[in-house]
Design a protein that fits this description.
Elements (H helix, E strand, L loop, with lengths): L3 H5 L5 E4 L4 H16 L6 E4 L8 H14 L2
Parallel strand pairs: 1-2
Length: 71
């Protein structure tokens, strides 16, 4: 059992390593939904390390995510 308010509330900052894959995308949406549901106003930073052999489609998706969630 996870107590989500105890996990998210006391943190000074939140970050998620994001590579554009389906697992990271699902985790991103889950984190954003939990933050919204708990009414936590803290921003979620995304960290992306660009590989030298990424697919063009993945890069385009990451750019879309960056545009959607950046302020």
């Amino acid at each position: 059992y996870l107590n989500l308010p105890q996990i998210f509330s006391p943190l000074e900052s939140l970050a998620l390593s994001f590579n554009g894959g389906k697992d990271c995308t699902a985790l991103l949406y889950l984190c954003l939904n939990v933050l919204a549901e708990l009414q936590i106003k803290q921003k979620l930073a995304l960290m992306y390390i660009e590989p030298c052999d990424e697919f063009e489609e993945v890069r385009a998706f990451i750019d879309q995510v960056a545009l959607r969630f950046s302020e």
